[in-house]
Amino acid sequence: MSAPKLSANEFLAAAKYRRTVYGLKGTSKVPDSRVQEIVEEVLGFAPSSYNTQPVRVTLVTGEKHTQFWDIVIKTAEPILKGAGEAVWDKMSGIMQSHKASYGSVVFWEDTSVTEAAKKTHVSYAHMFESFGEHATGMNQILVWTALELEGLGANLQHMNGIPPVEEALKKFLAVPASYRLRAHLNYGDEPAAHSETVPAKLPTSETFKYVN
Hints:
Blueprint: H1 8-17, H2 32-45, E1 55-61, H3 62-82, H4 85-99, E2 103-110, H5 111-120, H6 128-149, E3 153-157, H7 163-173, E4 179-188, H8 204-207
Antiparallel strand pairs: 1-2, 2-4, 3-4
Helix pairs in contact: 2-6, 3-4, 3-7
C-alpha cells in the first residue's frame, strides 16, 4: 500500500485540533449516519495487540441518549449523596449538562476476547488487561478527533467509576455480560467557537529523552 497524500504535519495538526468541550448542545450538524460511518471505519483499522480486536461500540442518540443519562443520574445519586450533599450538588449539575448533549459513543471491551487471548498467548497473559485498555484508548482518541474535525464538540466521560452505573447501562443497552464499560464520548454541536488553545503541558525537558 502506497503512503497516502497526507503529511505527518497534517496528521498531527488534525490530532492537535481535538479538545475537551463542555456545555454541548442537544443538536448535531453531522448526521447520525456519518457518525456511524466514522465509528465503523475506526473499528476497521484501529490497532489491538495480536489483532485480538476486543473493542465494541454502542452509538446512542435521540431519546435513548436522554434515557441513558437519566439512568446514570438515578443510579449515581445515592452513592454521590453518600459522599456528601456538596458532592451531589456539583456532580448532578455536571451530569445534567452531559445529558443535554446530542449523543454518546459508548466504548466497551469484550472480556471474552481478552480471556481467550490470555489462553492463546500464555506467556503474555498478564498483559492483556493493559492491552485491552490500550485498544479502547486508541479507538477513543481516533473517534473523538474525527468527530471534532467534522465540526462537533465532544468530551470523554468515565461514569463507570461508579460501579452500579456500568451494570445499569449494560442492561439498558442490552449488551452481553462479557462487555466491560471503558468510557463514553458525549458529542453535539459546540456552544461557542472551537478553542485553539492547547492546555498547558510539561516542558519536553521533563518528558522526553533522546538516546543515541
